Amino acid sequence: MARPRQHAPEALHAQVMAACDAWLKEHPVHTLSLRALAREVGCAPSTLLKLYGSFNNLLQHVNIETLAHLRGAIEGLDDGGPQARLTGLATAYWHFAKAAPFRWQLLFDYPLAQEGELDQRQNDMIEALFVRVEATLKEFQPAIDDLESRRLARTLWGSVHGLVQLGLNERLGYWQGQPLEVGELIDQLLTTLLNGLRHLPGSV
């Protein structure tokens, strides 16, 4: 029997992430196994366990890549002011999920890391998205304080996320025989929230 090819850790990690990416383009994560990945990259399953510690940790690295791809999708948005920025962020969030539904499923249906470097890296990337939303809300309505903007950003993005998840599962319902569109519902959500902020008591 031929011996498995030898890999430097960095090269092997890149191959594993590429193999996961190819798999998740066509299949959900529950159909993926450590043995199948090892076969794809030409090594023994024990080699992957030595590199990652566990299959769970391996999948957390995939989640970090997904968060990095999401960050890349929203960083290059044109800035036409706070309302346009929020609309762009929410729309990019929806388009990203729609384009990579199995990656998205892994990110939100599989437990994130709970401790250590992976946990910190994931939290930092998620927090960066919230901070961007918080800053945009405060730019739109300077009368809100830090705590209020923090809560509001999470309330808003939780609502956007809910629409995205329901849209992916085609559970948003119909109007006059046509499915309700996620993009239109996101626009309605943002318009309603920003109109409320615009007329906030105590604002100038």
Biggest sheet character: 2 strands, antiparallel
* DSSP strand tally: 2
Distance between the termini: 77 Å
* Average of the residue pLDDT scores: 90
The assigned structural class equals mainly alpha
Q: Describe the global form.
A: elongated
Oligomer: single chain
| Rg over C-alpha atoms, rounded to the nearest angstrom | 20 Å
- The helix/strand series, from N terminus to C terminus, equals HHHHHHHHEEH
Sheet with most strands: strand arrangement: 1-2
What topology does this entry show?
Elements: H1 9-24, H2 34-41, H3 45-52, H4 55-75, H5 82-99, H6 101-109, H7 116-140, H8 146-168, E1 174-175, E2 178-179, H9 182-198
Antiparallel strand pairs: 1-2
Helix pairs in contact: 1-2, 4-6, 4-7, 5-7, 5-8, 5-9, 7-8, 8-9
Structural commentary:
There is one protein chain. This protein is an all-alpha fold and 204 residues long. The protein has 9 helices and 2 strands; from the N terminus they run ααααααααββα. It has helices at residues 9-24, 34-41, 45-52, 55-75, 82-99, 101-109, 116-140, 146-168, 182-198; strands spanning 174-175, 178-179. It has a two-stranded antiparallel ribbon. It starts with 8 loop residues before the first helix and ends in a 6-residue tail after the last helix. The relative contact order is 0.10.
Name the features.
204 residues; elongated; 2 strands; mainly alpha; 71% helix
Describe this structure in a few short sentences:
This protein has helices at residues 9-24, 34-41, 45-52, 55-75, 82-99, 101-109, 116-140, 146-168, 182-198; strands at 174-175, 178-179. By secondary structure, it is mostly helical.
